[in-house]
Amino acid sequence: MSKYELPAFPVSRLRRLRRTAALRDAFAETRLDRRTLIYPLFIMEGENVRNAIGSMPGIYQTSIDNALRECEDLVSLGLNSVLLFGIPNEKDDRGTAGYAADGVVQRAVREIKTRFPEMLVITDVCLCEYTSHGHCGVIADGTVGNDETLELLTNQALTHARAGADIIAPSDMMDGRVGRIRAALDAEGFAEIPIMAYSAKFASVFYGPFRDAAGSTPQFGDRKSYQMDPRNGREALREIALDIQEGADIIMVKPALAYLDILRSARSEFSVPIAAYNVSGEYSMIKAAAERGWIDGEKAMMESLYSIKRAGADLIITYFAKEAAELCDR
Fold first, then answer.
1. 201 catalytic per annotation
2. Is the peptide bond before 255 cis (omega within 30 degrees of 0)?
3. Rounded distance, CA 123 to CA 161, Å?
4. What pLDDT digit, counting tens, does each position of 248-281 carry?
5. What domains are defined for the chain?
6. How far is it, in rounded angstroms, from Cα 75 to Cα 206?
7. CB of 131 within 8 A of CB of 145?
8. Pairing of β 250-254 and β 139-140
């Protein structure tokens, strides 16, 4: 008898295990743990900065001092993982501020690890927040040059490691960047630092609010020549496989909700830990609908997060982390 060849009704009554809240909780197949939620932080220069992001209700750009206060809140909620994005005062065509030893993310890492040594600090490695043109690498002949960008990304990853980052997360989608970063980390004595690769990162419309937050909207063209085509699923598995071969310890699917099929396929194909990014547009859609009374925002949040977990994610990067922490499975 296969697992689905069940006795027929009325012997089988699947509603028996749904009858009460206690029964439903006891037999829930999917659990959401605070320790698997990662909260993104947008770090700015200055002091006592806390700028509301209009397209992302409840999310802020913060200076390092206020980022430390955010970390205090996270710890009090039982959360212990952050993903840092930097917003520099000045940008140029090579994203120099992104790999400066005293850059805003580098300083934020040092401060957070000093104040909260048990906090898991993950740093985004990409140049889009730091370039004047908003693209993720060096512009060569009117497009983003892959190989020219690898050296800068490697430099950025090294400055994050030197500052004390726990995990390096390259999000640029340049070919070969995981291998280059892995080799450089190992050569500098950082062989123990994991890489969480944004392996299947799609050219998605759902990044819009993030670009408001990070000031990273491309000044010309788009990112379709380096981020993945949303129509392609098999290619996503190739991207993941290549990143694992190059040394990725954790892979990521981004966005999450529109790509649950990719997440499920990756879980079936690969044994490495998998992260999913519940991106800004997914967050803001729920927030906007809830503000208008069209849906129950809290229930929509939890249903979405459970769907990501159920599809195969070990870790979820989400702007809902603080709200969801109060409702996670005990």
1. yes
2. yes
3. 9
4. 999 999 999 999 999 999 999 999 999 999 999 9
5. 31-325 (3.20.20.70)
6. 29
7. no
8. unpaired
Catalytic residue among 254, 287, 309, 322: 254
User: Exposure of 300 by Cβ count < 10 A (0-12 exposed, 13-18 middle, 19+ buried)?
Assistant: middle
Residue in the structure block whose two tokens are 């982390």: 321
E strand or H helix at 170: strand 167-170
With tokens 């491309």, the residue in question is 218
| Residue 253: both structure tokens together | 């699917």
**pLDDT tens track for 109-138:** 999 999 999 999 999 999 999 998 888 889
pTM greater than the 0.85 cutoff: yes
The H or E element that residue 325 is part of is: helix 321-325
Catalytic residue (one of 91, 201, 287, 309): 201
Which percentage of the chain shows pLDDT scores above 70?
Answer: 98
Distance between CA atoms of residues 81 and 157, nearest Å: 18
Pairing verdict, β 250-254 and 50-52: unpaired
- 65: CB partners within 8 A, 6+ apart: 47, 48
309 is annotated as an active-site residue:
no
Q: How far apart are CA 105 and CA 62, in angstroms?
A: 12
DSSP character for 172? S
- Other beta carbons within 10 Å of 15: 8
DSSP string, 266-316: HHHH--S-EEEEE-HHHHHHHHHHHHTTSS-HHHHHHHHHHHHHHHT-SEE
Q: Residue 3: which pLDDT band, with cuts at 50, 70 and 90?
A: low
DSSP conformational letter for 131: B
Cβ–Cβ under 8 Å, residues 124 and 84: yes
